[in-house]
Amino acid sequence: SLLKDGSEIIPFNRSGEKPVIAAVEREEDHLDQVKKLVGNWLNKGHETIAVICRSAKESKAVYEKLKDNLDVRLMID
């Protein structure tokens, strides 16, 4: 499983393209890859896009890097 405790996930049906798992070799390339992917989806007309990180700490760091360039919200719970 890609996720810890993945066996506890309850699947559901959704329409649209499958989610993308983007992996980068260098951390410095991470933000550029996220911006590129989000930009492509916005250009295709998507209005709501989720960037899911491995931890709350990583989510906060990504949010801080994106907030000046994109209309983003941080959702941690």
UniProtKB/TrEMBL annotation:
| Gene3D superfamilies tied to this protein | P-loop containing nucleotide triphosphate hydrolases
**Superkingdom classification of source:** Bacteria
Sorted alphabetically, which InterPro entries does this protein's record hold? Answer: P-loop_NTPase
Specify the protein name: Uncharacterized protein
Classification lineage = Bacteria, Pseudomonadati, Bacteroidota, Flavobacteriia, Flavobacteriales
